[in-house]
Each structure stands twice: as C-alpha cells, then as structure tokens.
Amino acid sequence: MTIRVTLDKMLAERDMSLTELSERVGITIANLSILKTGKAKAVRFTTLEKICDVLDCQPGDVLEYDRD
Asked: Contact, 14 vs 6, CB < 8 A?
C-alpha cells in the first residue's frame, strides 16, 4: 500500500511550473521537488492546504492511495 503524490499531473493541468508553485505557496523548490517525486515521508496539513489553495483543488487531487 502506497500514497502517491500526483502533483506533477496537477501542475500540468494548471499549466504551472514547480517554480511558480513554489513562489505562490512560499515553499522552497527543493521541498516541493521532494514531495513531487514521492520521497517525502510526511506533509503538513498547512502545506497541503496552501498547495490546494493555489492549484484550486482538493487534497485527493494531489494525493492518491494505491492498495497494490
């Protein structure tokens, strides 16, 4: 069982770069990159809230649960 981060899909759908998201959310590109590549072990709700606010989406649009 795995939680997958689909941030790259959301960025593509919004035609937004990781750099632009970083600037608008106030999180470093390095930290967003760790999240985007699935290497993050945790994410703060406040960070997820900011990402969802900027991307105009729900947490389930950014995170995906895979049972396999």
From this structure: no
